[in-house]
Amino acid sequence: MSNNLSADAEIVRRITDGDVNAYEHLVKKYKRYVFKIVNKHIPYEQVEETAQDVFVRAYQSLPNFKKKSSFKQWLAKITVRTCYDFWRKAYRNRELPMSSLTENQKDWLGKVIAEQASQAFYEEGAQKEAAEVLNYALDRMSAEDRMVLELIYLEGLSGKEAAALLGWSVANVKIRSFRARKKLHKLLTEKK
Amino acid sequence: MKNFEENHIKLKKTLVAAYKGKKKAEPDDGWQRDVIRHIRRLGPLCPETNCFVLFDQFVWRFAAAACFVAILLSVFVFQTGLSPEYDLAKLYIDDPVELTFVQYFGI
Description:
The complex is a heterodimer of chains A (about 190) and B (about 110). Helix content of chain A is about 75%, strand content about 0%. Chain A is mostly helical. Chain A has a domain at about 1-95: Rna Polymerase Sigma Factor, Chain: A, CATH 1.10.1740. Chain B is mainly alpha-helical. Chain B has one domain (about 25-105). Chain B has 6 helices and no strands. Chain B starts with a helix and ends with a helix. The model of chain B has no long low-confidence stretch (mean pLDDT about 75). The interface of A and B includes residues 131, 153 and 188 of A.
């Protein structure tokens, strides 16, 4: 493990000394890791572009890499924050969604709550319904609430871990998490 | 209340499954080549870049505070009718020698 850390630190040193080509080693080593994170937060069509933004941003920020944490942890923070920035821009540029859940989606929700989910979920089209309902709810959150909900509620990270990734205070993250969960339930259970 | 909690757990499990079951993109060689090409266009990192990074990090944080102070001062000047150029000119006209002496020693 420490060999791995020192190998990354050595590559970073070479890059900050001017060896641009050395960056390819880091891209090759961590591309799957970055894609794994970006895939969770960003729509499929935008994943490649966002992942590219992550590596460009990481390259430009290399002089700030303090070596207190591992390069992998540092890169994870940049990746999560790039995903957050994606949603901030996306929310700024689009109109507010006005539609409510469709009848199919409401039926699906009803089945989930009535304990028919194990069959309903795997029936043809049900997975699609689940994803649509989730996207419906997430699209109606702010970028901040969306990221906190995804990291804590859906991925199961602790408030401290989510705060470290996002660069926010733990208190801020916990308050947002509480409010976002309440909002999620309100969105999915009203007018059922 | 118990019903709500039970429903919440079922709903959460299903939403988590939908979240983790998303279609996933994979990095291919073409994507990697594009990234490296972009990085090469940016060129090597150099010490001067650090200065810009520091500037970006610290100076812009004060921009909002500086704007706020500027607005406050403008409001104050507007409200009080303060016109320092006239006051300074008046001081000079009243006592040109002492004012010059004071200014010279920066008092």
